[in-house]
């Protein structure tokens, strides 16, 4: 993954790509956060939120990002997947310190 791949994606209408990306996240994530619907606990205090948020970040966001990239710059999908996995691992390791 490099500046060239980012520039290639920007040429494909960044606003439209961003919208596709977030719509994918919301479509998948709304199925994962059903425990919040009938809860009397404020969202930020719900004990299930943090583990679910990490799951969404690691799995759902990754999937949405890579699917969006695959449609735009398919040859860069693997590079972005590797970079995303490294980011998720770094975030996870900070959480356990």
From TrEMBL:
<dbReference type="GO" id="GO:0020037">
    <property type="term" value="F:heme binding"/>
</dbReference>
<dbReference type="GO" id="GO:0016491">
    <property type="term" value="F:oxidoreductase activity"/>
</dbReference>
<keyword id="KW-0408">Iron</keyword>
<dbReference type="InterPro" id="IPR009050">
    <property type="entry name" value="Globin-like_sf"/>
</dbReference>
<dbReference type="GO" id="GO:0005634">
    <property type="term" value="C:nucleus"/>
</dbReference>
<comment type="function">
    <text>Phytoglobin that reduces nitrite to nitric oxide (NO) under anoxic conditions (e.g. during flooding or in waterlogged soil). May not function as an oxygen storage or transport protein. Has an unusually high affinity for O(2) through an hexacoordinate heme iron because of a very low dissociation constant.</text>
</comment>
<keyword id="KW-0560">Oxidoreductase</keyword>
<keyword id="KW-0963">Cytoplasm</keyword>
<keyword id="KW-0479">Metal-binding</keyword>
<keyword id="KW-0539">Nucleus</keyword>
<dbReference type="GO" id="GO:0046872">
    <property type="term" value="F:metal ion binding"/>
</dbReference>
<dbReference type="InterPro" id="IPR000971">
    <property type="entry name" value="Globin"/>
</dbReference>
<dbReference type="InterPro" id="IPR012292">
    <property type="entry name" value="Globin/Proto"/>
</dbReference>
<protein>
    <recommendedName>
        <fullName>Globin domain-containing protein</fullName>
    </recommendedName>
</protein>
<dbReference type="InterPro" id="IPR019824">
    <property type="entry name" value="Leghaemoglobin_Fe_BS"/>
</dbReference>
<comment type="similarity">
    <text>Belongs to the plant globin family.</text>
</comment>
<keyword id="KW-0349">Heme</keyword>
<dbReference type="InterPro" id="IPR001032">
    <property type="entry name" value="Leghaemoglobin-like"/>
</dbReference>
<feature type="domain" description="Globin">
    <location>
        <begin position="1"/>
        <end position="96"/>
    </location>
</feature>
<dbReference type="GO" id="GO:0005737">
    <property type="term" value="C:cytoplasm"/>
</dbReference>
<dbReference type="GO" id="GO:0019825">
    <property type="term" value="F:oxygen binding"/>
</dbReference>
<comment type="subunit">
    <text>Homodimer.</text>
</comment>
């Amino acid at each position: 993954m490099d500046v060239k791949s980012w520039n290639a994606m920007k040429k494909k209408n960044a606003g439209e790509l961003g919208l596709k990306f977030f719509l994918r996240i919301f479509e998948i994530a709304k199925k994962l956060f059903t425990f919040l619907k009938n809860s009397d606990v404020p969202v930020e205090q719900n004990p299930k939120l943090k583990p679910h948020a990490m799951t969404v970040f690691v799995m759902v966001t990754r999937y949405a990002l890579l699917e969006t990239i695959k449609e735009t710059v398919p040859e860069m999908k693997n590079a972005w997947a590797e970079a995303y996995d490294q980011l998720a691992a770094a975030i996870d390791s900070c959480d356990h310190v």
